[in-house]
Each structure stands twice: as C-alpha cells, then as structure tokens.
Design a protein that fits this description.
Layout (H helix, E strand, L loop, with lengths): L1 E5 L7 H14 L33 H11 L1 H6 L8 H11 L4 E7 L5 H12 L5 E5 L4 H5 L4 E4 L2 H5 L6 E5 L12 E2 L5 E3 L5 E3 H9 L1
Parallel strand pairs: 1-2, 1-4, 2-3, 4-5, 5-6
Antiparallel strand pairs: 7-8
C-alpha cells in the first residue's frame, strides 16, 4: 500500500513561520526616507485557509513568489517549527511499524530553493523517510493514481480524491473552514491492521468506553 503524508501541516507548521517572516519583512520595518511605495502590507487574521495570499497582502504574485522561494526559502521551509511535539518520533515509528508499506513524504508546490530547504528541515528535525516526493498542484490527480492513502491538511488534495482511495484530514487551526469525517490531530491517532484497514484510535477508545 502506498501511503502519502504531506509535509506541510502534518510535519511542518509552515503557516506559523510564514506569518512570522512576513510580519518582520513588510510590517515591522522602519519607513525608508523618500520611499514612494504606498502599498499597504497587512495580515488578515485569523488564518482560515491554505491560500496564503488571502491573508498576506502582496503587490503581485511575482513579489509573493520571490519572498517565498528566493528571499526567504531557508527561513520558511528549513527553519519552520514542527507541527506538534514529538511528531518526528511518531513519524519514524510509523515508517518502522509499517515497513511493509511504502510511505512517501510529499512536498507540494516547492520551487527553486524551497526543495533543499525542506530536506534541511527533515534532517535537522530528525525525520527518517525512505521516500520523498515533490509535486505540483496540477499533478495531484496523477499522484492519486499512485497513492492508496493520503494524510494531509489540504482541501485541494481531498477535492481530487477518487472514490476508491482514502483521505485522512490532519486538523489544524487554519483548515477548520471545512470538515471531514476521517480526521486526526497526530500520526499516532491511526493504526493499520493486517488487512490494510485504517483504525482510528479515538473511535476505538469510544467503543471501549461505551
């Protein structure tokens, strides 16, 4: 079974670091003498979806891409905090426990210097993946042809899910604009049995308590 795990959201709190560096780069700065830039840089809180340009004002897509992939890729992709305490141990245990399956870490829309920065993040945080993939949003459907299960915080990935595949929503503070029945807050919330059935530990506990 091919199990895909999105890096952002599940392992890396990218949104948190994006917020921090955008604020320092565009808001908490001294006004330059003689500057003719009258554009209003602002953050619209709370962050409620993964389309960051809805919440962080840029003058153009080119400026946004330059900030994300050229100017601050190591700060954003390499030095982001992990999504929750002990996620690296839980991920490494997941890979070890399910070594009969192929577990892939997936980076989405990572251009230019973002890819090596992500590899740095994985190394410095102690993640030990056997497989890493970098894909583009326009190729999500093609990847669903290969994936059997995809754990992610992204509604784009869910919306393209075929009926015969499994999606598990990783809940965050910024993706509560949609709901999904199969959801977790950490990787240890699920197990996979010998028949490749996904067992949600919370549901199992509810049955024991009933």
């Amino acid at each position: 079974m091919n199990i895909y795990i999105s890096i952002d959201g599940v392992l890396r709190n990218f949104v948190n670091r994006f917020h921090y560096h955008y604020e320092n780069a565009y808001i908490n700065v001294d006004e330059e003498e003689g500057s003719t830039d009258t554009f209003e840089y602002k953050i619209t809180d709370p962050i409620t979806n993964l389309n960051l340009t809805d919440h962080f004002a840029f003058q153009s897509k080119e400026q946004s891409d330059h900030f994300q992939y050229i100017e601050y890729p190591m700060e954003l992709y390499g030095h982001s905090p992990v999504s929750y305490i002990n996620v690296y141990n839980e991920f490494n245990k997941f890979v070890f426990d399910y070594k009969d399956h192929d577990v892939y870490l997936v980076g989405l829309d990572e251009y230019a210097k973002a890819k090596p920065a992500t590899l740095f993040f994985l190394a410095r945080s102690g993640f030990m993946p056997n497989n890493i993939k970098f894909i583009l949003s326009e190729n999500i459907s093609q990847e669903w042809d290969k994936a059997d299960v995809w754990i992610s915080d992204s509604k784009r990935i869910l919306d393209l899910k075929p009926d015969n595949k499994e999606f598990i929503l990783f809940e965050t503070t910024y993706n509560n604009f949609f709901t999904y029945e199969k959801k977790i807050n950490k990787l240890s919330d699920i197990n996979i049995d010998n028949q490749n059935n996904i067992i949600f530990n919370k549901d199992e506990q509810k049955q024991l308590d009933a």
